[in-house]
Amino acid sequence: MRRILVAGNWKMNGDEAANAALVDGIVAGVPEGGQADLLVCPPFPYLSSVAVRLSGSAVMLGAQTVSEHPKGAFTGEVSAAMLGELGCRYVIVGHSERRALFGETSATVASKFSAALDADLTPILCVGETLDDREAGRTEAVIDEQLDAVLGQSGADGIRRAVIAYEPVWAIGTGKTATPEQAQDVHRHIRSRIAAHDAGIAAGVQILYGGSVKGDNAEGLFGMPDIDGGLIGGASLNADDFLAIAGAATRV
Ligand code: PGA
Questions:
Q1: pLDDT digits (tens, 9 = 90+) for 192-223
Q2: CA of 73 to the centre of ligand 1 (A)
């Protein structure tokens, strides 16, 4: 049985005071029952202070991106080992904003994925199509290309140590969520693509949905057979909103 993971991607938001209130609110309200694991991914400069505030709680820490290089002359970059030392267990790779705004190709993302694994971090690999892709019937082809780059470099064994997040670009920050059925169709496709390499790994990997997940739509999404939680942007910046999503995870 796959557990549910509810991960907050804070993006470039927050400050010390707001983060303290957010983290304390989340920690105080973690739902009883333990069906869902909770994760927060703050911006790099706040990882340390958030780690201190999370210590002793069940809420885990992750980062939003990572360098594909282990060390060296890469001004401004942060390595996977550094993230591990700060207490991160997860790192998001290939978020659509990284792909669209910072020129990350599927090959770069595959290298970041592999760098995360090398440092014993769990990569959360984001895949997803734009509205144009969907309307042109290219959803599965786009996702296959993004997934295959990682499978080619790290193999199914890499996926075994990872989490996948399906995030349709048209649903991110737009308030337009994929319906549970639309999301389930793509999640099933992702699982079958991995199953072509290794059925056991495909059955075990967590596949999150991301894109305008809120307290009132989370239960429908998390109730689908191949949806194992959410990657939450906007609603992860408010403790009550984030906890409402975590609460939905305990009801499915
Ligand atoms: P959103 O963002 O929940 O604000 O749509 C999701 C994401 O970008 O991970």
A1: 999 999 999 999 999 999 999 999 999 999 99
A2: 32
Ligand 1 atom at minimal distance to the Cα of residue 212: 5
Q: In whole angstroms, what is the distance from residue 55 CA to residue 89 CA?
A: 13
> What would the pLDDT profile of 94-117 be if each residue is shown by its tens digit?
999 999 999 999 999 999 999 999
Is any ligand 1 atom within 6 A of the Cβ of residue 178?
Answer: no
Q: What is the DSSP string of 142-181?
A: HHHHHHHHHHHHHHHHHHHT-EEEE--GGGTTTS-PPPHH
Q: Are 25 and 59 in contact (CB under 8 A)?
A: no
Catalytic residues: 95, 167
Please classify residue 190 by burial: count the beta carbons closer than 10 Å to its beta carbon, then call 0-12 exposed, 13-18 middle and 19+ buried.
buried
Q: Is the CB of 234 under 6 A from ligand 1?
A: yes
Residue 119 has, within 13 A of its CA and on its CB side, a CA count of 27
Question: What CATH number matches the domain at 4-251, 3.40.50.2300, 3.20.20.70, 1.10.287.70, 3.30.420.40?
Answer: 3.20.20.70
